[in-house]
Amino acid sequence: MIRQFTILFLFVPFLSSGQTEIYPLPTSPDIIWNKCIELYKEGKLDSVQASITFFKDYYHRIDSIKQFYIHADTVKYSDSSFAVGQIILDPFMEFERRKFGEWTFYYPSGKIYSKGSYSIGAFTECQFAGPSLIGYSFKTGMWKYWYENGILMAEGIYQPIQVEEKTNCGSDTINVSNVTPSWKLFDNSGMKVNNGETIISRINNSR
Fold first, then answer.
1. Of 77, 145, 177, 178, which is least surrounded by CB within 10 A?
2. Where are the domains of the chain?
């Protein structure tokens, strides 16, 4: 049976992957609907109702309720690293294949690279048929990162910073967060470091 629960989201940080996703991607709403039906029959489909708060849209609405379907999945990247977590299935194509909830990322060797949770945000783009909501995933809350030898590299809580983003509708606001010196940072022997610019840069520019 599908489990339904409600989660309220605020805009928080967006971080993109540094690798190319090579998982076969759905190409149409029909394919996504068929996937939902298939997963439902297998008992692997969950339902999520989310209230997404965003800065503005074409109609100056403040928030919007969206219904999603999610399922556990593995995402593979071109460098042979991979990640395991929940993927959104959205036949309306606004949040399709966005990451949601807790995720774990792995080195190509299978060792854990990072672990934490994703939430979702949105901004508005203008298209020929009218304004369209564009969803994205972002890291939020406590995250931990490890070296491949299993030593903790960094741990901390992502804090959002508002950024004005240009769109073809004018502009919209998204919240972005990065690892900062306020996080606990360690070298690959486990010693705490005070000046971890190299570590910070490595994490901020990776998945």
1. 178
2. 4-140+157-178
How far is residue 206's CA from residue 67's CA, in Å, rounded to a whole number? Answer: 30
Q: Is 74 exposed, middle or buried (0-12, 13-18, 19+ CB in 10 A)?
A: exposed
123, 55 Cβ separation under 8 angstroms: yes
Residue of 106, 134, 103, 96 whose CA lies nearest to 117:
103
| Lookup: tokens for 61 | 């609405």
C-alpha pair distances (Å), 207 with each of 27, 101, 151, 179, 189: 24, 16, 18, 12, 23
- Residue 13 · residue 178 · CB < 8 Å: yes
Distance CA(124)–CA(135), nearest Å, equals 9
- Report CA torsion sign: 197, 200, 204, 205: positive
Tens digit of each residue's pLDDT (9 = 90 or more) over 124-156: 777 777 677 788 888 989 999 999 999 999 999
Structure tokens at 177: 């967060």
Q: Residue 130, CB half-sphere, CA atoms under 13 Å: how many?
A: 3
97: which residues sit within 8 A by CB, 6+ positions away? 25, 26, 87, 88, 89
Query: 2: how many CB neighbours lie within 10 A of its CB?
Result: 11
pTM comes to 0.78
